[in-house]
Design a protein that fits this description.
By secondary structure, this protein is an alpha+beta fold. It has one domain (4-222): Pseudouridine synthase (2-Layer Sandwich). It is 19% helix and 31% strand. The chain has helices spanning 36-44, 68-79, 161-168, 182-192, 231-234; strands at residues 4-8, 12-17, 49-50, 59-65, 84-92, 99-103, 106-107, 119-120, 123-134, 145-154, 199-207, 214-218. The radius of gyration is 18 Å and the shape is globular.
Length: 235
């Protein structure tokens, strides 16, 4: 299956990564034959270099370099916070406020206990795009389930930063097996007819490291996300 190309020039290429696809093969998923890097390499007929990562379950904008030199330049831009990223997330419940900033340090490795690990600075801006009330009973006290569509902007690139931060404010992302609730995730998967992590890399904006022009990449979410207000794409 061909990957959808969002942008391509002689230096870099961006794709719309489908949910469930690894960025590249790892020892932790040695049984998986499919990964975005290998599929894109075969599709273009040339080597490609990943410059950032998305969780396997996350869909959306994924950027690759077409040389090791450009990969180094782009990687440094991610490290310096020169890549402006915006995500969409479907979360449990309705946040009380319309927007906010989560300022909560995170341990470097989310797979290990936080105790004993150094805590790294981490902030995520968020705002509510839509509030939904689904005809789905997941709590015996209520006949419906409240869900919010959020736009999230991580100011750093800590591993699982958005997932961990939204759990911290008690609005975990739907479909998050690590930070969410299993019974709710299973009910939502049945209700929507698909099982996935409801996190989507919607926009990535940066200055081209060689051409000096602004590159604005956008991956339109699939129909299963429901209506996304136009304001989310305009910012």
């Amino acid at each position: 299956m061909s990957l959808t190309l969002l942008y391509e020039d002689e230096h870099l290429v961006a794709i719309d990564k489908p949910p469930g696809l690894l960025v590249h093969r790892t020892q932790l998923a040695a049984h998986e034959d499919e990964a975005a890097l290998q599929r894109l390499r075969d599709q273009l007929g040339r080597p490609v270099w990943p410059v950032h990562r998305l969780d396997r379950g996350t869909s959306g904008v994924l950027l690759f370099a077409l040389s090791s030199e450009v990969a180094s330049l782009l990687g440094a831009m991610f490290e310096r916070g020169q890549m402006h990223k915006r995500y969409l997330a479907l979360v449990r419940g309705w946040p009380r406020d319309a927007q906010g900033l989560i300022d909560h340090p995170l341990a470097r490795d989310p797979e290990l206990p936080s105790t004993g690990q150094p805590l790294l600075e981490a902030q995520t801006r968020w705002r509510v795009l839509d509030r939904r009330d689904w005809p789905l009973a997941t709590d015996p006290r209520f006949s419906t389930t409240r869900v919010a569509l959020l736009e999230a902007e991580p100011l750093q690139g800590r591993r699982h930063q958005i997932r961990r931060h939204l759990k911290h404010i008690a609005h975990p992302i739907l479909g998050d097996a690590t930070h969410g609730k299993g019974p709710l995730n299973r009910a939502v998967a049945t209700f929507l007819g698909t099982q996935r992590l409801w996190l989507h890399a919607h926009r990535l904006v940066f200055t081209h490291p060689l051409l000096g022009t602004e590159v604005a990449l956008e991956a339109v979410p699939a129909d299963a996300w429901g209506p996304v207000p136009p304001a989310a794409a305009a910012r």
